[in-house]
Amino acid sequence: MFLSAGTIGFLVALSILTFVGWYYYKTEIARNKYLKSRISSVDEADTSKSKRKAKISEELENMNDKMSYEKLVLIGVFGACISFIVLFMVNAVFFGILFAGAFLFTPEIYVELLKMKRKRNFKEQFPDALRELLSVMRSGQTPLQGFQLLSETAEYPMRKEFQRIYNDINTGGSMESALRGFYKRNPSSDTELFVTGLIIARHSSPKVAISTLDTIITMIRVREGQKKSTASMVASGKLTAIILAALPLFIFAGLETFMPTYINDFLDLTIGKIAVGFAFVLDMIGFFVARKITDSSDIVGQ
Q1: pLDDT tens, position by position, 167-224
Q2: Are residues 135 and 177 in the same domain?
Q3: Residues in contact with 239: Cβ distance below 8 Å, sequence separation at least 6, in sequence order
Q4: What pTM did the predictor assign?
Q5: Residue at 262 is within a domain
Q6: Is residue 166 in some structural domain?
Q7: CA of 127: how far to CAs of 51, 177, 193, 206, 222, in Å?
Q8: How many domains does the chain have?
């Protein structure tokens, strides 16, 4: 039995429409998957950026710094562009890329410098703050009243730290937990001595607490003398580490500036690129190992 021409045409048309519908359906599924993946990747990138911004903004606020994250990013982008253009003009393309990449981490570098400055100021202010606290306790007042006075009169960062101690205790927390929080935020042998001594002394008479704090101040003063005696040796070691790490980079920059053909021919070779990269990695490893050694010496001095 043969099908009529109309029936065959109808079946062909139905087959074509079915194929077109199936193709459109599969295309839409693939398109939706692609769009979802793109949206997901964009969301992840936005989340990563927002986390970075939130973290750096919080650290800037904690350190009472008026610089904003947006300004730091702008400075970094501007510095990256300028450094790359200048080094590109003197045929130092490799260092142009290196410095441009470093400038993109301007917010993180700025925060680390602030942390170093805060740590240095804290170490300088801590003995004076303890002497002020001792004077308050000798006048017959409690340590809590001393914390309140320091939270109003001390300089940053000591003022903010004693504000946190006072607020923690004043809002229902124990003095022990407030002091342990203080040590957790500022870990050092001096703060550990202060926190441990004050926690033990608070269960004794006021005279014992005053005597304990006086002993702690004396011990910190002795340690400061020891630190100063080793500071010059540690500083010279750190300076030597910086010079030794920077010297190969300056030599390479000089060769690329004054002998660009020689360096470019060398970098055109695969083995040349590998050698330069390997040398750079070894240079950085040597620098960080030297810094670790000098930092360990610094800790021993503390």
Answers
A1: 999 888 899 999 999 999 999 888 999 999 888 887 778 888 888 889 988 888 887 7
A2: yes
A3: none
A4: 0.58
A5: yes
A6: yes
A7: 37, 22, 12, 20, 11
A8: 3
Residue indicated by tokens 């914390």: 147
Q: What is the mean pLDDT of the chain?
A: 79
**Pick from 136, 131, 301: which is nearest to 228 by CA?**
301
**Domain assignment of residue 276, yes or no:** yes
3-class DSSP state for residue 178?
helix
- Examine residue 160 and state whether it is found in any structural domain, yes or no: yes
293 and 236 part of one domain: yes
Residue 28 CA to residue 104 CA, distance in Å, equals 40
What is the separation, in whole angstroms, between the first and last Cα of the chain? 104
Please report, as a single letter, which amino acid is at residue 148.
Q
Same domain as 184, residue 138: yes
Q: How confident is the model at residue 1 (pLDDT cuts 50, 70, 90)?
A: very low
pLDDT per position as a tens digit, 97-155: 888 888 888 888 888 888 888 888 998 899 999 999 999 999 988 889 999 999 999 99
Find the domain containing 82 and state its range. Answer: 65-104
